[in-house]
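Q: Sequence in, structure out?
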Amino acid sequence: MNNHRRSLLIALAATPLALPAQAVGPANVDAHGVAIHGHDPVAYFADGKPVMGKSEHSAKVGPATYWFANAANLQLFKADPATYEPQFGGYCAYGVAQGVKPDIDPNAFRIVDGKLYLNLSPAVQKRWQADIPGFIDRANQNWPRLKGQ
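A: Exactly. Output:
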């Protein structure tokens, strides 16, 4: 087992977040199909922080339902969902780089080159930030295979 995968498994064991009910397939959603633990994907860009969405402002893309804090964010998303959707189906970017699909902490995020990346925890995010371009490249290579699992 390589050091990166070992680090991820240690972080997973030490993180109190549970995997979502449907942690399989192309989108990281809960038992109701809600992505990002109900947080508004547009708010990461517009407000620079995670903001809880509301079910009355929602949009569905594939298997994922996104909630938005307000109607304006919902309209921005509907105009261009690909701009706001998290990378790797909303799974932990570091985990995908390691060949697994862990859940995320909505507070552990980073926007890189106009794309939203989420991580399992602040500790995992710190490891991911040590080589963001390298981990993104590896995750991009792994994602086509992991997407259907």
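The beta strands are 54-61, 64-68, 105-112, 115-119.
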